[in-house]
Amino acid sequence: MKIATFNINGINGRLEQLLAWLALTGPDVVCLQELKCSGPKFPAPALAEAGYGAVSACDRGFNGVAILARDTEPVLIRDALPGSSDDGQSRYIEAAVGGIVIASLYLPNGNPQPGPKFTYKLAWFERLISHAAGLKAAGVPVVLAGDYNVVPTDLDIYPTRSWTDNALLQPESRQAYRRLVGQGWVDALRRLFPKERIYTFWDYKRNRWQRDAGLRIDHLLLSRDLAKRLVEAGVDRAVRGLPRASDHAPVWIRLR
């Protein structure tokens, strides 16, 4: 089974690129983030024509997450992260596909920090940590995939000081990520590539794509039973180099 995560940064504006990538690479499951469309405008018919069933959660044209499954329909479990009844931002969706619980998440950016956006980021992270603990305790196979908006270590960013004050690199953000992984989740890319500089995001500013000045902020965390089945992983960097591309590239894993 091939599982991918991709911050599409506007699904309708990049639908043609998405469909071409799906046809070329054929992932079995895709977690999408930053759809930037309202529910009625989610392109379910075009995805169905391409052979993918889908569940999605959208809000007023911002944020938005989805899970696609090839030749089947994902079984929706929840379309919001537990822990806050008044959170109107669509950043989490969870479904069952092929006997695996799949989560697509879009963790808040948190900038500028300090401030209310950073406070919201850390609070959302606490909710994720709590919910992930419950999933782990349930003993089911789980993939937590998405744009975490966290650079876990200095190995996950090009050599620079220009991001020092960014919320993605703050000690609180990194500590929250370590606490999550410390529950027993396995960072798939780091499992297979423990010492390599691997990037999944290149900002549009300052020719960062052209300079390969990237960050690794898109992660697939696996329950330990699935980690034993991990045989391959990678980043489809070429997608980032296309005209009018998202600032992220798809990240994928293959399970036995």
UniProtKB/TrEMBL annotation:
<dbReference type="InterPro" id="IPR037493">
    <property type="entry name" value="ExoIII-like"/>
</dbReference>
<dbReference type="InterPro" id="IPR036691">
    <property type="entry name" value="Endo/exonu/phosph_ase_sf"/>
</dbReference>
<dbReference type="InterPro" id="IPR020847">
    <property type="entry name" value="AP_endonuclease_F1_BS"/>
</dbReference>
<feature type="site" description="Transition state stabilizer">
    <location>
        <position position="149"/>
    </location>
</feature>
<feature type="binding site">
    <location>
        <position position="7"/>
    </location>
    <ligand>
        <name>Mg(2+)</name>
    </ligand>
</feature>
<feature type="active site">
    <location>
        <position position="106"/>
    </location>
</feature>
<feature type="binding site">
    <location>
        <position position="34"/>
    </location>
    <ligand>
        <name>Mg(2+)</name>
    </ligand>
</feature>
<keyword id="KW-0479">Metal-binding</keyword>
<feature type="site" description="Interaction with DNA substrate">
    <location>
        <position position="248"/>
    </location>
</feature>
<keyword id="KW-0460">Magnesium</keyword>
<dbReference type="GO" id="GO:0006281">
    <property type="term" value="P:DNA repair"/>
</dbReference>
<dbReference type="InterPro" id="IPR004808">
    <property type="entry name" value="AP_endonuc_1"/>
</dbReference>
<dbReference type="GO" id="GO:0003677">
    <property type="term" value="F:DNA binding"/>
</dbReference>
<protein>
    <submittedName>
        <fullName>Exodeoxyribonuclease III</fullName>
        <ecNumber>3.1.11.2</ecNumber>
    </submittedName>
</protein>
<dbReference type="InterPro" id="IPR005135">
    <property type="entry name" value="Endo/exonuclease/phosphatase"/>
</dbReference>
<dbReference type="GO" id="GO:0046872">
    <property type="term" value="F:metal ion binding"/>
</dbReference>
<feature type="binding site">
    <location>
        <position position="149"/>
    </location>
    <ligand>
        <name>Mg(2+)</name>
    </ligand>
</feature>
<dbReference type="GO" id="GO:0004519">
    <property type="term" value="F:endonuclease activity"/>
</dbReference>
<feature type="binding site">
    <location>
        <position position="248"/>
    </location>
    <ligand>
        <name>Mg(2+)</name>
    </ligand>
</feature>
<comment type="similarity">
    <text>Belongs to the DNA repair enzymes AP/ExoA family.</text>
</comment>
<feature type="binding site">
    <location>
        <position position="247"/>
    </location>
    <ligand>
        <name>Mg(2+)</name>
    </ligand>
</feature>
<dbReference type="Pfam" id="PF03372">
    <property type="entry name" value="Exo_endo_phos"/>
</dbReference>
<keyword id="KW-0464">Manganese</keyword>
<keyword id="KW-0378">Hydrolase</keyword>
<feature type="binding site">
    <location>
        <position position="147"/>
    </location>
    <ligand>
        <name>Mg(2+)</name>
    </ligand>
</feature>
<dbReference type="GO" id="GO:0008311">
    <property type="term" value="F:double-stranded DNA 3'-5' DNA exonuclease activity"/>
</dbReference>
<feature type="site" description="Important for catalytic activity">
    <location>
        <position position="218"/>
    </location>
</feature>
<feature type="active site" description="Proton acceptor">
    <location>
        <position position="248"/>
    </location>
</feature>
<feature type="active site" description="Proton donor/acceptor">
    <location>
        <position position="147"/>
    </location>
</feature>
<feature type="domain" description="Endonuclease/exonuclease/phosphatase">
    <location>
        <begin position="4"/>
        <end position="248"/>
    </location>
</feature>
